[in-house]
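Quick one, tokens below:
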């Protein structure tokens, strides 16, 4: 039986470490940090850990409607979405994820662009 990416890399505890490091990178970005100015990061990291875990084949689901609804008021620009995806891939590499696994997660994130991006300038 084939393991999911989620299982191969240690489940929720490991994904949470990745997500925490990922948000450190986002908060260091002059372009991305403003999106999180008034955000409870602990709660966001919990939600993002669930989402990334799901993308990696872990338990749960996050509907397209939820993604669209929570991101719509943020007016996310396409260039910032792409930067976020690049930083996520970089973080996965920092945690020694295999390249095919990094690319898979990156593709899964990028395919959700229409649900998240509202500014295409």
């Amino acid at each position: 039986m084939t393991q999911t990416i989620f299982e191969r890399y240690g489940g929720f505890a490991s994904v949470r470490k990745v997500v925490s490091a990922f948000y450190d990178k986002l908060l260091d970005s002059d372009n991305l940090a403003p999106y999180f100015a008034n955000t409870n990061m602990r709660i966001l990291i919990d939600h993002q850990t669930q989402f990334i875990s799901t993308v990696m084949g872990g338990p749960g689901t996050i509907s397209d409607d939820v993604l669209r609804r929570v991101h719509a008021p943020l007016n996310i620009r396409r260039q910032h979405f792409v930067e976020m995806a690049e930083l996520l891939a970089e973080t996965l590499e920092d945690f020694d994820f295999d390249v095919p696994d990094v690319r898979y997660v990156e593709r899964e994130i990028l395919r959700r662009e229409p649900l998240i991006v509202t500014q295409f300038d």
